[in-house]
Each structure stands twice: as C-alpha cells, then as structure tokens.
Amino acid sequence: MFFKKIKHLLLAVILLAFVSGCDDTLSFGNDPSGNFDALWTILDENYCFFDYKDIDWDAIYKTYRARVKNDMGNEALFKLMAEMLSELKDGHVNLIASHDMSRYWNWSEDYPPNFDASVLKKYLGTDYQIAGGINYTILEDNIGYMYYGSFSRDVGNGNMSEILRQMAICRGIIIDVRNNGGGSLTNVERIASRFFNEKTLVGYISHKIGKGHADFSDFYPKYIGSYDKTRYQKPVVVLTNRGCYSATNDFVNVMKHAPNATIVGDKTGGGSGLPFSSELPNGWSVRFSASPIYNVDKEHIEFGIEPDIRVFMSESDTSKGRDTIIERARQVIKARN
After folding, report:
1. Which residues pair with 277 in a beta bridge?
2. By the 8 A CB rule, do 79 and 68 touch?
C-alpha cells in the first residue's frame, strides 16, 4: 500500500535528520535562553512551510528572543514560546509540557462552522448503525448517509464492506467528514479506495534534505489504490467545512479524483504537513510540520481545499432542523440519478 510505504520512507528519512538534530540541541543549555534557542533552531532547520508562508523566521527570533529572561519561570517561558510558534499559523505545531500544550486553532475558529451537531442528530435518528468509527443510516429518500468524526477511529475493511453492502440499494452515498480533525492516513486509504476502480495519482510529497528553508527532495508521486473486492459505483458526495484538517484534508484531496465523487460544503481547514516531534533540553517536546503534501498540480494544500460546490449553512434551515449542506448533497445525488 502506498500510504504505508511512503510513511515508512519518510519516517526513515526524517529520523536520520533528527538524529543529528537532537545532537545539535545538546549544545544548548537547560535554561530559558538555551531552551528558547533550541526551539527556534529545531524549527529553523526542519519546519517545511517557511518559504510558502513567507515567514521571516530570523525577524521573529529577534522579536521574541529579546523578551527572554533567565530568571523567568516555566509558565512565562512556555507562553512566550507558544506565542512565537503561533506566528507559523499551523495547527500541526504544538509545544508540549507537563502543565500545558500550545495549539493554533484559527484555521477553523476564524470561519463559520457550517455544522450543527444537534441538527445532524435529526438525520441520523436514534437507530443508526455503527461500523468502526462510522455512524451510518439510509435516509428516507433512499440515499445513504455516513458520518465519520475522526480518522483516529479505525475503520476496518470488513466495516466498509458491510456499509457498502447495506447501501447497495441506495441512489448514492453522502460521506460527512465535517469537523473531522484528522488522524490516521491508513483510514484515509481504507475508505477512499472503495471509490476508485484503478490506481490513481492523487498528489505528491517531498521532505527536507538539508537545514535551509528551501532544501527539499524531488516530488514523490502519491497514489491511491483500488480495493480489490467491494467497491461503490454510484454517486458519492463528500461534505466539508473548515473543521476538516490534517488527514481529513488529505482524504478530501484524494476524493477530488474519485470518478463519481463531488465535494460539497466549505473549504477545508488545511494541514498538509506531515508532523514530527523533537525534544528541548528541559524535556518539553515540540511537534511541527516536517514534510509537505501537494495536489496533482504540485500546489500546496496547507491552507485548505476548495469544494466543487460551495454551500453555507442557512440560519433559517438550522432553525427548522434542516442541514443546508446535507440537503444540497441530496439534490446533487438525485440530479446525477
């Protein structure tokens, strides 16, 4: 499977880079200045989006380094470091200590949610079925509906085969991944491969090969395979919003190329950098984007993917217990029938 092969390749390459990176951090002292400099250096040599985001990391160093005091406590130092990391505008960047974990959530918080869990319950009802991490049912107009809230919740091949067997009678399927913050790329492959009839190019990936901000490998092609048993041949609509991040962003990028798929909703939240972690002298860890994923045109998808049909939730619909995006998806399937 491509996802497993590329994952192992990247882990090997990145691990080699970080063995030397960890040795470098040993030269920094375990005091506020040393830990700050270690954090800045780890990102400087390994973060993958400086040029794409037009970030002046040297200028950021000067601004925040001037605020470091060697008598400052751990909480003050943590807050200062977290503030510096927020300049990267990346939900995959976290500083992790025993007392707190920094995070950047503006990729979704600055946008309309286009999702209402209470309205969603009216579509699922109370007798919906659960297979792996997927909640699913068949709507009254004979359209299948699946809600998948996290790619961290495993979905087995048997789960997918049973869902598709029960939905074989349906006019089409809605796959709702709104507010899915990501998880395992293995689950991306297991689900997406059911909607492809042949191995298909879906993007590219590269990795850092040096400490410079522009030191990247060539593009490695990224394919999705076709599952060799039960596959779905009718229309499928994927529902998205800004809460679709990381592995979910990748899933949407893959499903853009499924022959019978349409993406409906809002632009995804992004998060295309594969994350990796390193450690500071004081034991705190930092997670960051280390290897970028691109679409088939070799364009970054770090800031999200546009839907085929853009739809926003209507307040009028919501007040009536209707989900505007689900309703539009039903229209798309009926039109294609």
Report:
1. 287
2. no
Q: Which of 283, 187, 217, 285 is nearest to 14 (CA)?
A: 217
Q: What is the pLDDT of residue 108?
A: 87
Find where tokens 């270690």 sit. 38
Contacts of 322 (CB under 8 A, 6+ apart): 119, 314
Res. 9 pLDDT band, cuts 50 70 90: very low
User: Is the distance from CB of 245 to CB of 275 less than 8 angstroms?
Assistant: no
How far apart, in whole angstroms, are the C-alpha atoms of residue 285 and residue 279? 4
The label of the residue with tokens 């705190």 reads: 284
Give the C-alpha separation, 57 to 48, whole Å. Answer: 12
Among 250, 127, 273, 120, smallest CA distance to 191 is for 250
In angstroms, the CA 283 to CA 96 distance is 9
Mean pLDDT for the stretch of residues 197-220: 97
**Single-letter code of the amino acid located at 172:** G
Burial of 15 (0-12, 13-18, 19+ CB in 10 A): exposed
Rounded to whole angstroms, the Cα distance separating 274 from 293 reads 8
**133-162 average pLDDT score:** 98
Question: Residue 18: is its pLDDT beyond 70?
Answer: no
Q: Give the Cα separation of 323 and 176 in Å (integer).
A: 12
Residues 280, 286 contacting (CB under 8 angstroms) = yes
Q: Is the dihedral of CA 237, 242, 247, 249 positive or negative?
A: positive
Burial of 138 (0-12, 13-18, 19+ CB in 10 A): middle
Which residue is listed with tokens 């191995």? Answer: 199
3-state secondary structure of 309: strand
Residues 286 and 277: their CA atoms lie apart, in Å, by: 5
Spatial distance between the Cα atoms of 172 and 331, rounded to a whole number of angstroms:
11
pLDDT tens-digit profile of 171-180? 999 999 999 9
Residue 238 parent element (H or E): strand 236-240
Per DSSP, helices labelled H in the chain are 2-25, 32-46, 57-65, 74-85, 106-109, 117-124, 157-166, 185-192, 247-255, 315-319, 324-336
pTM: 0.91
